[in-house]
Amino acid sequence: MLQIDSAITAEQLVSKVEHLFELSGKKILSIKDTWDSSRGTPVFTVKGMYTVRGWTEWTRGFQFGSALLQYNATGEQAFLEIGLNGTLQHMAGHVSHIGVHDHGFNNVSTYGNVLRLIGEGQIEDSGYLAETCRLALKISGAVQASRWTPLAEHLGFIHSFNGSHSLFIDAMRSLRVLSLSHSLGHTLMGEQDEKISLLLRLLQHAETTACFTVYWGEGRDSYDVRGRTSHESIFNPKNGTFRCPSTQQGYSPYSTWTRGLAWAVLGYAEQLAYLDRLPDEEFGCDPGIHNGEKKKWIQRFLDAAEATADYFISCTATDGIPYWDTGAPGLAHKPDWAEKPADPFNDFEPADSSAAAIAAQGLLHLGSFLNARDGASNGDRYIQAGLTVANTLFAEPYLSVSEDHQGLLLHSIYHRPNGWDFVPPNQKIPCGESSMWGDYHARELALMILRMAEGKPAYRFFSTIV
To answer: How far apart, in whole angstroms, are the C-alpha atoms of residue 36 and residue 178?
Structure first.
């Protein structure tokens, strides 16, 4: 269980954040100098060098988005050029990609960051750039929302690349592209010119996820613990009935893949401030579920964010780094794993630093929302938890200090069941490697904390649009 440092502050982490971005810049330049774009998208490192792994092209946005975050933090023009040129040259195909649920990863990390930086005055709009980004985000949100499996009782979900039967927990973070598209004034046009609200699809997907993929401790099955998540929920798309939990990257449907849990923490938490900004009347798009009432929707997202955040805090090691799955069988050889800091070099099961980086952002968003809403310190526990995790991540053995290693955040895990992650010589488990999503979210987390410490407006994906 995470041992929360109640005294740590964002200001105390500034030196670590600055060191992270110093290392980060060198790694971004190393990838630029060595990566052949004809190979596809860099996904994770093997022996310290980024390589590909064909599944879906879901990490390219993190490649160019990382350069944009680096520019955001340091103001160095070279990184703006890498991020902006990469976005304009390589991301258009991801805007119109009809085969994946990853639009929020690819396109908000690129076009969304560019538009945010223009709004913040850090990029000069050339007369076409902002409108290009707006158009890309509008289309991306509509394409994402079109991957729709309808269910009864006003429910439905954006289905994963596995098909119309499959709801992934990951898609909670992809919902932010629907948020931006909606707030840019866009709708999805259906058959016979039906106008489909992107906000409604966002809300319906989040509710379906809360009903079937997040657990509430209410006896759904023998493994129903509040805040636990399954990676995948399986439905019969012919009649819309729920069939069973499942997983692609976790150990079991009845254990918790911790990166999936982290996606839920962040996905629900960062939407709270977005929904709170919307006018009450926009929730009239909801014909049922919560009867179009904004406060009921916000409470539902808050309940899911708190449940998943509480579970993350309870199921991680004391330093905030989780192992890749709470039911990973090798943990039986480490019966006290939850009572000490994570050991990424152990002989039994890998830790996953990328899950920690994602969840830490969610903890900060959740705590900040609670404090802003209540005018009190009700969110302090979550803020301190997020800072505690960041304090661990932004130092060795998780921060990659070697100039010969292209990764920034070490001990990230991609797909343990498939055996895709590199196992170094003399080690029994994957360790010492990085991933595009882990590195991106470490930078995003660092930028959040830097802005907190400097008293600047909070880092939010929608900050200059809503």
So the answer is: 32
